Amino acid sequence: MLLLPATVTAREARDAVRMLSQALKRESDSGVVIDASALDQFDSAVLAVLLECQRLAQAWGKGFSVRHAPAKLLALARLYGVDALLPFEGAAAAAA
Q: Which among 37, 31, 50, 34 has a CA at the least distance from the CA of 2?
């Protein structure tokens, strides 16, 4: 499981993608799970980061999901219309 940083805004997005893509390459199993429970400060750039990670995982033949997404992240994904594109799972996702 990969951990999303606590802060992902437009300022941190490039570094977050770089860090997560390197970690994605090292994931040996067929499914990649990103844990978003530490996510505290974010803007719409986090959605771009997650979509890019999903694209990379699929390109490398791996499954992809986001676990423990904060309710505000789920609301942002709905607002931008990408909630159906990103596979959210976990307690916050079930409550949303």
A: 34
For residue 33, what pLDDT is reported? Answer: 93
Q: Give the range of the structural domain holding residue 75, as residue numbers without chain letter.
A: 2-95
Return the structure tokens found at 72: 């505000």
Say if CB 77 and CB 88 are below 8 A apart: yes
| pLDDT above 90 (res 26) | no
Distances (CA, A) of 90 to 87, 93, 95: 10, 5, 9
CATH number at residue 40: 3.30.750.24
Supply the pLDDT for residue 79: 97
Number of domain units in the chain: 1
